[in-house]
Fold each of these.
Amino acid sequence: MKRIVTMQDISCVGKCSLSVAIPIISAMGVECSVLPTAVLSTHTAFENFSICDLTDNLSPVTHVWKKEKIDFDMIYTAYLASVRQVDSAIELCRDFGGEGRTIFVDPVMGDFGRLYTGFEASYPGHMMELCKKADIISPNLTEAFCLLGEEYCENIGLSEALKMAKRLSDKGIKSVVITGVSPEKGKLGIVKYDREEDRYFSYFTDKVEASFPLHGSGDVFASAAVGAMASGFEVDAALRLAADFTAFSIEKSVKNEKRRWYGVDFETALPKLWELKMNLKG
Ligand code: PXL
């Protein structure tokens, strides 16, 4: 069985970060080790939240892993609460990355053109340094604009989105996948540029209209993509699977009249994840 490690927070309530990554990656038949960075009462979209910062606990944990000669097939980082945690993630990549190890960075920072509560304007510059260590990054549109230091624009066409992925990659990132791109009405998906192969890729599903925010949907996408890549699927196929699973999870949320406002109903979509994986195996 493949083993990955994911470094991000636990939001005790609010369907995101480790509460999303562990079930999705495990459901794909991949061992999901964790490096928890903080324990929050709720994610930061709630009006009130508490945070217990675990930065000082990170190196004692990784120190033991090194002594025990533990290794991982993939490293997946997501929400990191501070610049110090970004630095710790860079150390994790240095110590546990390398030949045959894939580093997947989801530079979680914001949405709808704004940084999440708690992040300062200088944060994206630090996150960029982590992105440069990655084999693949998965910013949403807001995060891609932040990393580029460009003004946010919600409506961009397909060729603009592809060019944007290339611009970001040109800054020293191997492969850039931008999520949440809607180049035409009724479609939503991803665009990708791969620097080593000088190759573009895009994939869109029918957009499920939701009249509420889809908190955690980026975590659902990234976790499914990591699970599929660790399962041995080639990257584009893994990304297609992740996009299909995310769209299906959103559809489940929209159909559920009793849904929670703070996250998508990926739980009831989990059987579909296995089905998508089996279909890909052929
Ligand atoms: O879903 C991303 C995420 C993860 N963790 C925390 C968050 C958010 C988004 O708001 O606040 C704590």
Note: The longest strand covers residues 31-42.
Amino acid sequence: MKRLDVKAIAEKIDYHQQNGIEMVKITNEYPELTVEEAYDIQKLTIQRYVERNDPVIGWKMGLTSKAKQISMGVDEPIYGRLTESMELREPVLHVKDLIHPKVEPEFAFVMNKELKGGNVKPRDVWAAADGIYLALEVIDSRYENFKFTLPDVVADNASSTKFVLGSQVFSPSYTQWDQVKVTMHKNGEEVQSGYGKAVLEHPVHSVVELTKMMNRDNLTIKPGMAVLVGGITEAVSVEEGDILNVEYEGLDTLNLAINE
Ligand code: 0L1
Ligand code: MG
């Protein structure tokens, strides 16, 4: 196999992420790329964001539904890094510089204590969680046709692109998060629906799994960080002019306008 230059690959991915230009899969050139090496590439890519004064403000979990894991032939989710520039300040998504964006409804846990270690339990997460936001994540794989292997998608920061949080924060004990029904409408038509339990049977398990995976990489979830736990429904493709209305039953509705 060609010698792996993780720094050069990170620079390349960063270029494609910043400019919204698609690329061929890394594994075409490096078929033996491991998931561990891919996390090194992800870390180096995001280091470049940080050097541009775009700090890491949270984490995201991907491949948290059984269906997505089966389709990728894996039995574990993946994580990615969220930076300040990825957070939309208003519910408007500009797609001019994106490739083939998709939107999925999520929950975001915000922590007030550090979470670390390989033995974290749901009650540790509840004790560390300050609040839960309703959230929409925009994913936009940099790879052609949204097709990739596991190391490819890890290197591409789990397709992270943008996210927006609802304006209300809920107490973690406000409701049974696995029972919340979410329905997504695009341009007035229902396109997806699902329940919170689509996320690893319960969204809290996603934060448990994230802490364990991060522990393997000597990372921790710091106070103040947000965690996007994973898609509650399948992601929906969007284009300029679309309007999304996402109802979280009994909680709130998030809207997202898709502009040029
Ligand atoms: O947030 C996600 O679940 C996406 C993870 C990466 C796989 C994909 O882009 O569909
Ligand atoms: Mg997601």
Note: The chain has a mean pLDDT of 97.
